[in-house]
Amino acid sequence: xxxxxxxxxxxxxxxxxxxxxxxxxxxxxxxxxxxxxxxxxxxxxxxxxxxxxxxxxxxxxxxxxxxxxxxxxxxxxxxxxxxxxxxxxxxxxxxxxxxxxxxxxxxxxxxxxxxxxxxxxxxxxxxxxxxxxxxxxxxxxxxxxxxxxxxxxxxxxxxxxxxxxxxxxxxxxxxx
Length: 176
Ligand code: IMP
Ligand code: MG
Hints:
Order of helices and strands: EHEHEEEHEEEE
Distance between the termini: 10 Å
Bound molecules: inosinic acid, magnesium ion
Oligomer: single chain
Structural class: alpha/beta
Helix content: 10-25%
């Protein structure tokens, strides 16, 4: 069996750039003068955080954490733990968690719960892609780039087996 390869472009580079600019304006409007902590979820959120932070002309701190769900494959198992933690204290800070995609919702729900326990002033969530049809747990997503159908996607941070994160667009995966 040949290895799965990227298929057709689902979200083009230009569409991503335009949407990131819009999200940047919405977030800037909502947070105004408040100093923000952008929390990127490694590794998938790297390109999104890099672009989004440059669309936010406000005072902010960027930090990252790594979440890993037990088990492997193309779905999340429901148990999430922190494989790498933040380096800043978020107590009394406004936090915006930024991730590549919300699928079942387990990852973001668990991360939100974990960060809320640290007594921040607020915790909101922002994802580039939302597979609404796959949700298993309710979690509020405050900022969504694109709602997509239930297809496995790669590119712009999203991987299949560690590959294709470097594509500048979001593509389907063929051959799984
Ligand atoms: P959730 O916990 O099911 O919401 O899954 C979130 C994580 O699963 C994301 O941060 C991704 O790492 C991964 N994931 C979910 N769907 C996809 C996909 O279509 N392509 C690549 N990774 C995905
Ligand atoms: Mg991820």
